[in-house]
Design a protein that fits this description.
Blueprint: H1 9-25, H2 37-89, H3 94-98, E1 118-126, E2 129-135, E3 145-151, E4 159-164, E5 168-171, E6 179-188, E7 191-192, E8 199-202
Antiparallel strand pairs: 1-2, 2-5, 3-4, 3-6, 6-7, 6-8
Domain Fibronectin type-III: 113-203
Protein name: Fibronectin type III domain-containing protein
InterPro entries: FN3_dom, FN3_sf, Ig-like_fold
Length: 203
């Protein structure tokens, strides 16, 4: 048997039981131990009771924490509903909202169309294709998509070529040998902004 003293509490209890049994069975070898078998067994019983109490306390603590978290979650949920109700009831009036301990938020702004796309340029071109790039509008609502449109010079009607999400696009399979004008418009659910500057190309 190893001489290393056990570390785990369960191993300590097991070793203590072996010790008590050995002392009881071999009084001729160990006639006057500092702690006789009876004392060892009593201490084992007390330690086991302490372990049981600690286990029960841990379970009770976890249950208490879970209950506390549930109650806080319910309280916070109802408080938020009351604050939202208060915002609507007093039309976001900060002085009136202060009476219920809430700081005003800005009333949601209505979505407006984006402004005019800026700095449309042709970055590269080849037979039947070209690369366009542009910059966001300086004003207006948030951009959702960009509409790339094309026409032949002199036509009043623009045709949609592609919808882009980024600030650049490659347009392929374009008509060759013709003058073409391109522009880009920013759009969102509220509508479209003004067309960008026009660029002209012959592919």
């Amino acid at each position: 048997m190893t001489r290393k003293f056990p570390v785990k509490e369960s191993d300590v209890l097991e070793r203590a039981e072996t010790l008590a049994t050995g002392l009881e069975a071999n009084p001729e070898l160990f006639p006057h131990p500092p702690a006789p078998a009876l004392k060892i067994r009593e201490l084992v019983k007390q330690c086991q009771a302490g372990l049981d109490a600690a286990t029960a306390a841990k379970a009770a603590y976890r249950e208490a924490v879970e209950g506390k978290d549930e109650r806080f979650a319910e309280l916070e949920g109802w408080m938020k509903k009351d604050f939202r109700y208060g915002e609507d009831a007093v039309d976001y009036d900060p002085a009136k909202l202060e009476r219920i301990g809430w700081h005003t938020r800005h009333a949601p702004k209505a979505l407006v169309p984006p402004g005019q796309v800026r700095s449309l340029t042709i970055k590269a071109q080849g037979e039947g294709w070209l690369d366009l790039s542009w910059r966001d509008p300086a004003d207006g609502g948030k951009v959702a998509t960009f509409r790339i449109e094309c026409r032949e010079p002199g036509n009043e009607t623009w045709d949609l070529v592609e919808i882009a999400m980024e600030h650049q696009a490659r347009l392929s399979n374009q008509a060759r040998g013709k003058k073409l004008e391109f522009c880009v418009l920013a759009a969102n659910k509220a509508g479209e902004g003004e067309p960008s500057n026009t660029v002209m190309v012959v592919l």
